[in-house]
Design goal:
This protein has five helices and two strands. The protein is mainly alpha-helical and 69 residues long. The longest helix has 8 residues.
């Protein structure tokens, strides 16, 4: 669903998503999902993290561009 909304509107994440929720306990499974790398890349977070540092619990991944716990 997130990917589809980006297909329709590449800036949907700015207008409709609350990214802070990604770091809540309820979203732990999403942080561990391998598709997070693609999502982070598509919305520019991956480039930001590479430049300024990965958030707590995340690091450059093996096989994926980012791995989070």
């Amino acid at each position: 669903m997130l990917s589809e909304s980006l297909d329709e509107d590449p800036e949907a994440w700015l207008k409709q998503w609350e990214l802070n929720a990604l770091w809540s306990p309820e979203w732990a499974a999403m942080r561990r999902d391998p598709r997070l790398s693609e999502l982070a890349r598509r919305i520019g977070l991956l480039d930001y993290w590479k430049q300024y540092g990965f958030p707590d619990g995340c690091s450059p991944g093996n096989g994926a561009e980012v791995t989070c716990s």
